[in-house]
Design goal:
This protein is mainly alpha-helical. It contains 13 helices and six strands.
Length: 324
């Protein structure tokens, strides 16, 4: 696996991607972290797509006139941001033969801990944001008239990240947003294990394997309300699954209440003092179970009006009356 940067141009490119950093960063210092970031990206977009980026990087004639240039830049941006996110915490200290020491330049002050935490959070959100851009870029290549761009899309739809969603009732962001707005294909992909568990634990036992497979493969008009309710169950269950497992920085803003602190910045926030995350997860889980009850009611056969046990009658003076 290659790092998609060259020593001689790294400082300028790195500054272009992260405008807030100093202009004297060297590839030698960040290379191992950028390599780690590259491997993390490969685990998401797949080896074949990353190899296409390597191919473009190795082509000395490749420039911004090529239709795939934006793809290469997005891949490089992802690895630069995430690489710096991995590198920054240790760069805050001097690592000497006498142990780790605090940096303290003559005309600079060390950042407060809450400032460092805010910066770490901002870098993480920046990484998720550019990864979202990369996903949207690949999705938008569908039907491209350019053969090279269309080839990128065809590689993308064969990745595990893309194909796993196609196994579920919720396959698009709009399906999920009907119940809780996430507005993110990246988050939807990350929620896939929760969707899978929802279908396994709450849907299959209620609808049965035959009906389950039929609705996924060839849904009918009569299945419309049932499928809508299934999606509701899955959306709420997936959120309940995600809250204790995912970083708050990838979850939708507002899913967990933020608490203002008494620190120096109005933007500062503190870890919830009680167990708000568990309460929020339980709230979504309760919503999922309520929707599952609605699903059971939809699946019940309509009552037979001729069944006397359903509609019992009583007789008085040779006349029959409904007992209900």
């Amino acid at each position: 696996m290659k790092v998609l940067f060259k020593d001689e141009t790294f400082a300028d490119e790195f500054k272009e991607f992260l405008g807030f950093v100093d202009a004297d960063f060297t590839l030698n210092n960040l290379k191992s972290d950028i390599l780690s970031a590259s491997r993390e990206l490969v685990s998401f977009i797949g080896k074949e797509l990353y190899e296409k980026a390597e191919e473009f990087f190795d082509d000395n004639s490749f420039n911004d006139g090529n239709p795939e240039f934006e793809f290469l830049q997005l891949v490089k941006y992802c690895t630069a941001v995430n690489g710096y996110r991995l590198y920054a915490p240790d760069n805050d200290l001097s690592h000497t033969n006498d142990g780790r020491k605090m940096r303290n330049e003559e005309h600079e002050k060390n950042a407060f801990e809450w400032m460092i935490d805010a910066s770490d959070s901002s870098l993480e959100k920046r990484y998720y944001r550019i990864l979202e851009h990369l996903i949207n870029y690949l999705d938008e290549l569908k039907g491209s008239e350019d053969a090279e761009l269309l080839a990128l899309y065809e590689i993308w739809i064969e990745t595990d990240a893309f194909k796993k969603l196609k196994k579920h009732f919720i396959q698009k962001v709009a399906d999920f947003d009907a119940f809780f707005p996430i507005n993110s294909k990246l988050l939807l992909i990350k929620l896939e294990p929760g969707l899978s568990l929802a279908e396994k634990n709450l849907i299959l036992p209620r609808v049965g394997k035959i009906k389950y497979d039929q609705m996924l493969a060839e849904p009918t008009e009569d299945d419309e309300n049932i499928i809508h309710t299934i999606k509701e169950v899955c959306a709420y269950y997936a959120l309940a699954w995600a809250i204790p497992r995912m970083s708050v920085n990838i979850l939708p803003t507002g899913i967990l209440q933020r608490y203002s602190s008494d620190r120096a910045s109005s933007k500062a926030s503190m870890v919830p003092a009680l167990n708000e995350s568990q309460w929020t997860a339980e709230s979504f889980l309760n919503d999922a179970h309520k929707a599952a009850i609605d699903l059971e009611n939809l699946l019940k056969p309509a009552p037979d009006p001729t069944d006397k046990n359903i509609n019992p009658t009583i007789t008085y003076n040779d006349q029959s009356f409904s007992a209900i």
